[in-house]
Design brief:
Layout: E1 11-13, H1 20-25, E2 28-32, H2 37-40, E3 45-47, H3 50-62, H4 66-75
Parallel strand pairs: 1-2, 2-3
């Protein structure tokens, strides 16, 4: 029997026009510093490498209070 999961937060990492709709709908949006400027202006967090994106995902996933952790990332200054 296949287990289904119930997700209530959308965390997106995007870098192009096809990602714009998801970035707008996300609870937290991330891009890498090499993304186009119009994407950088849209996202909550800009990181230097894909490894940093994975670290953010892991920290939120393992957090007891995911809402609080997401708010913390949104409030931090963007990384460049």
């Amino acid at each position: 029997m296949k287990k289904t999961s119930s997700f209530n937060k959308l965390i997106v990492c995007g870098s192009g026009k096809t990602d714009m709709e998801l970035i707008n709908k996300s609870d937290l949006s991330i891009c890498i510093k090499d993304a186009p400027d119009y994407i950088k202006e849209m996202v909550d967090v800009i990181v230097s490498s894909p490894d940093e994106v994975l670290k953010i995902y892991e920290r939120i996933y393992h957090s007891r209070n995911k809402d609080k952790k997401i708010r913390k990332y949104k409030q931090k200054n963007r990384k460049e």
